[in-house]
Amino acid sequence: MLDVDRLLGELTLPEKAALTSGSSFWYTTPVQRLGIPRVMVSDGPHGLRAQPGEGDHVGLGGSVPATCFPTASAIASAWNPDLLRRIGQALAQEARAINLSVILGPGINMKRSPLCGRNFEYFSEDPFLAGELAVGIVDGIQSRGVGTSVKHYAANNQETDRLRVDVRADERTLREIYLPAFERVVKATQPWTVMCAYNKVNGTSCSENTWLLTTVLREEWGYSGLVVSDWGAVYHRVAALLAGLDLEMPPALGRSPQAVVAAVEAGKVPAEVLDARVRTVLELVAKGMPVLELDESFDADEHHALAREAAGESIVLLRNDGVLPLAADARIAVVGEFARTPRFQGTGSSQVNPTRVDALLDELRAVHGEVPFAAGYGIGSTADDSALRAEAERVAGAADTVVMVIGLPAADESEGFDRTHLDLPANQLSALRAVAAVNPDVVVVLVNGSTVVLGDVTPHARALVEAWLGGQAAGGAIADVLTGAVNPSGRLAETVPHRLEDNSSYLNFPGDPQVVRYGEGVFIGYRGYDKCHQDVAFPFGYGLSYTSFELSGLRVATRGSVAGGDLGATVTVTVTNTGALDGAEVVQVYVQDVQSSVARPVRELKGFAKVSVPAGGSRQVTIELDQRAFAFWSTRHHDWVVEAGDFTIAVGPHSRDLPLTETVTVEAPSLAAPLDRDSTLQEWMNDPLGRQLVESEVKNGQPAAVLDDELVDVIGTMPMSTLANFTGMSLDHDALDRITDAWREQTHAR
Ligand code: BGC
Predict the structure, then answer these.
(1) What is the DSSP letter of 674?
(2) Could you state, in order of their start, the residue ranges of all structural domains in the chain?
(3) What would the CATH number be for the domain defined by 4-293?
(4) 359-392 as b/e: b if 16+ CB within 10 A
(5) Torsion sign (Cα): 545, 546, 551, 556
(6) Which of 494, 558, 702, 721 is the most buried (most CB within 10 A)?
(7) Cα(150)–Cα(372) distance, rounded to whole angstroms?
(8) How far is the CA of 659 from the centre of ligand 1 (A)?
(9) How do residues 485-517 score in pLDDT, each as one tens digit?
(10) 26, 43, 162, best to mutate for ligand 1 pocket (most atoms within 8 Å of CB)
């Protein structure tokens, strides 16, 4: 163990400064004379990408073999924090086996636009879902003595110009959409580290953003761990240190430590500030040290099996006219290069060197015997397409059912750049059309990290299976779903729109040079489609099963009060499996503020539960809502507020199928602004005391026009101070002073 207090007294200024940067690409700085070792950090998030030793100095070269679990897009579709907890424990075991102290993940940024190149590394377009899933995986990893880094804090929602872009978003949008997943995971799990993003937020780089790193993260949310920079996100070391950034990675050796020493000597950085940052670094090293002593291993087969289970649970069945599950004796053919050459993870810093990779073709052959196969299209190259298509037609024509795998090539989506469209490659779509023309019994399997539009696919698909980038065991997992060994239970964690243009960020993505305005505010994802009454291809939360479920008996019991800060509700519902197969349903609870003084989403996910129910069985589910489930961020009160009135609690299998609703009426203190001389006539008339005071002035001889309802409609939006200049139709200035004083006195007296 490190005695942090003693060490702080013994470290020299240069040693302290050195500790606030790493010593190399993946290591913290050791101080040998005081017995402070270096600890290692490495990517993340869905498998380890670790280069023990000195690595290749840019960090992208070959890494030690590790299990590649499903990417975030995929695993989010499982809607199962417990599954993430188990994956987290497995990841931690792999980290322990190589003496790795901190895994750089999970990535919990919001999918503001389906175009973001890194969406495969992020969970969802919904902050509540992302937050719950983050809690699962962080808990799982940290329960085994290994640290995490929740990233990228904050508002890192595009790859275009990601190091320089200035995200302009109003505070309500940040508080309601871009920060809550971080807030949830920080408060619930105290991740060992939080990784600050590359971009700027409202003019200031995240690494120098005192509001983000200190005010919100530490002071409001009570974060006690370490803030590490994204790799290269420190632009001014001293400013970052002052703002709350503890550890710069990778280190700007020869520059940053010297700059910190000089700033302390010049009095620009108080010694206590440096000490606070060093303390955090030492505390991280102390937590990471036990891992250095371990001599452990992991069971690659067991982890592969978990990866397969997880990938199976992540698959979303989008359409099925009964062709799935495949009959055991069906004569099937497989078409699509991706069935033979799997695409199962994304490119960039999250790229894992897998322990092994299962191909769908092999897995189907293991069940169905020697299944005929045709590539159908080339990945990347389209040179041989007509020959490949002809072969695919031949193979498809001779089968009962065709399993056709299409998706996005690695070159189409990656860390480092954004997509410019949501289309699947044209050569794959022509292959699909050709196959469907000779054999209409087509099951389409999609492999893609981020959403694609499906208008050209769905008409040719008797069944449509969204398999995402499901990790190294995805081939087996897809086979499990196709054959019925696994009953699909995935639900979309992001909407599939008909067109890119329907997405609310469309007008402002990726923005202008070096700046992007989040003009859609809180209305991202389904919040945008719902508000604009857009039809969508497949809604948020959607997914089919081989069995059927019925929800019944909704009960909502509220407790506590807004005034007491402890409003809550217990939502109870019964799930019945009305089909012939065991299966799992995801019960989703959405909250809607029926009437609000600010523009609010039509509905917001505030609770969910995944429940397994045997065929013919029923299970009762209880989901808790807290006060935040009803609140919005008030820019005027600078706080979360709940407005009095009716709220609809809507429960169902997805965001656009909510058969059970109950309305609860919430009492809450008034949020109206205090009345003053600049309040409008309407505001005065809407306030009971205000109206009474105006009426008494009219009795005292002020013009009665001010009470004329028709006139109030016309002039009601004018401030009283302006109206007071209009003699004959309004109160004069003296009367206005009198009622303003009286209102203030009487409301204070209350
Ligand atoms: C990525 C991070 C990653 C880091 C280290 C950065 O470019 O944005 O997600 O953890 O590199 O590889």
Answers:
(1) P
(2) 4-293, 312-531, 549-666, 681-749
(3) 3.20.20.300
(4) bbbbbbeebbeebebbbbbbbeeeeebeebbebb
(5) negative
(6) 494
(7) 45
(8) 43
(9) 999 999 999 999 999 999 999 999 999 999 999
(10) 43
Classify residue 151 as exposed, middle or buried by CB count within 10 Å of its CB (0-12, 13-18, 19+).
buried
Tell me the CA end-to-end span of the chain in Å, nearest whole number. Answer: 57
User: Which pairing describes strands 41-43 and 102-104: parallel, antiparallel, or unpaired?
Assistant: parallel
549-666: CATH topology is Immunoglobulin-like (2.60.40)
Contacts of 390 (CB under 8 A, 6+ apart): none
CA distance 105 to 344: 18
CATH number corresponding to 312-531: 3.40.50.1700
Q: Which of 514, 534, 516 is nearest to 525 (CA)?
A: 534
94 within 8 A of 146, measured Cβ to Cβ: no
The first and second tokens of residue 109, run together, are 């940024």
* Helix (H/G/I), strand (E/B), else coil: 645: strand
Tokens (6 digits) for 180: 């809550």
Verify whether residue 166 is a known catalytic residue: no
Cis check for the bond before 372: say yes or no (omega within 30 of 0): no
DSSP 8-class letter at 164: T
Alpha carbons 217 and 224: distance in angstroms, whole number:
9
* Its pTM surpasses 0.85: yes
Q: Is 104 in the pocket of ligand 1 (CB under 6 A)?
A: yes
pLDDT digits (tens, 9 = 90+) for 599-645: 999 999 999 999 999 999 999 999 999 999 999 999 999 999 999 99
- Which residue minimizes the CA distance to atom 4 of ligand 1? 231
Distance between CA 220 and CA 365 in Å, rounded? 56
